[in-house]
Design brief:
With 389 residues, the chain is mainly alpha-helical. 76% of the residues lie in helices and 1% in strands.
Length: 389
């Protein structure tokens, strides 16, 4: 019987298959944790936690943090941090409200303006980090104060409302039942095509192919959850539009991070900056673009928040940066850079939102919610450090 041949790095094929299988088990840990959270809160709320209405509200609540977590994943993977996104969410949402309520701009115009302004401020911060070598922690900490001050100055400390009906629909409308099921089936079809195409490419390139049981098992599990969630949401009012926006953005950024040179360079940059530079990766330009994208996503989150509340306030977005960072860390993103997945960050955002939602339904006082979330964050970072050791 022949022995497995070692690869270029001296690891046998069987060993690599074992590592791949172990990694996949770790990725399912988040889902298991989410299921346990749902079971616990369902038991303590008499089943109300898993009611269609509450699940719909839960997805709507998590959408803003989920959008921020998508961009924050890239920021942290690149080896940086952004403490300003909460203030930038408040500023972009406030500018959108001011332009529409005080100056009569159309919904489409204010959405474009909010995203463009977010990207502009992201460019400004990225320039300081990439081309002036100021630590991102300091730049974004300053940005947090600057953006909040600009918002207070522009709004004169007032609450700006109400928004137009078209703008309110962005954060408060639902996708119809039948189109919702069609969208779920299309999503499953894309998942199957993606998996089959990926297996084909890996075979052509002579790379290790995960077992069919593993790949098709994933498809079956993901398809079950997609159909189950669609069914539960359709029992209420349909699929919330904000969560569809999150799914759309997540699909784009997952493709960018996994299938483009820019995405792979971000992981290389965070994993080993010196090696990335020697490989010809333009570190400054890629760092700049990461902050620009984060600014644009903050603009999207600002629009969602203002639409959902039908108003812009000077305190909007407060502490959102902490929730976004916590979602990324809980989802497996390493704070030292080089490792992290957008899917994990989205599940982390859902876990954070579930804890908030469940504890609120149990009428637990607010200070306990802060304590629990803080302890979860510390525990998640400890797991990351322990796994490396």
């Amino acid at each position: 019987m022949s022995k497995p041949l070692p690869t270029a790095d001296g690891v046998t094929t069987q060993a690599k298959r074992g590592v791949s299988f172990k990694f996949d088990l770790q990725s399912f840990t988040l889902i298991i944790a989410l299921v346990l959270i749902a079971v616990i809160f369902t038991a303590f709320t008499g089943g109300e936690f898993l009611s269609s209405r509450n699940i719909s509200n839960l997805f709507t609540q998590m959408s803003i943090i989920a959008v921020l977590a998508i961009g924050m994943t890239l920021i942290i993977v690149a080896g940086h941090i952004d403490l300003s996104v909460g203030s930038l969410v408040g500023l972009t949402g406030g500018i959108a409200a001011i332009l529409q309520v005080w100056h009569g701009w159309s919904t489409f115009s204010v959405i474009i303006a909010a995203i463009a302004i977010g990207m502009l401020f992201g460019l400004w911060q990225g320039w300081w980090v990439a081309y002036r070598a100021v630590p991102a922690f300091i730049v974004t900490l300053g940005g947090m104060l600057v953006f909040r001050g600009i918002l207070i100055g522009l709004s004169k400390g007032q609450t700006v409302s109400p928004m137009n009906d078209g703008f309110k629909q962005i954060g408060n409308s639902y996708f119809p039942y039948i189109p919702g099921y069609i969208l779920a089936v299309v999503s499953i079809g894309i998942l199957v095509f993606w998996t089959l195409n990926n297996r084909k490419k890996r075979k052509q390139m002579g790379l290790i192919i995960p077992t069919a049981t593993m790949d098709y098992g994933k498809i079956g599990l993901y398809s079950f959850f997609i159909l189950l969630i669609t069914y539960m949401l359709n029992r209420y009012l349909g699929i919330p539009v904000p969560i569809l926006i999150v799914v759309f953005l997540a699909g784009i950024f997952i493709f960018v991070s996994n299938k483009t040179a820019f995405g792979r360079s971000i992981y290389a940059l965070g994993g080993n900056p010196e090696a990335a530079a020697l490989s010809g990766i333009n570190i400054k330009r890629n760092t700049l673009w990461v902050f620009i994208l984060m600014g644009g996503l903050a603009g999207v989150a600002g629009v969602l928040l203002t639409s959902r509340l039908n108003a812009a306030t000077v305190s909007a977005g407060t502490n959102y940066e902490l929730d976004a960072i916590a979602a990324c860390v809980i989802g497996g993103t390493s704070l030292v850079g080089g490792r992290g997945k957008i899917i994990g960050a989205l599940i982390g955002a859902l876990i954070m939102a579930s804890i908030d939602n469940g504890m609120s339904m149990m009428n637990i006082e607010a200070f306990w919610q802060y304590i629990v979330k803080g302890m979860i964050l510390i525990f998640a970072v400890w797991i990351d450090i322990a796994s490396k050791k």
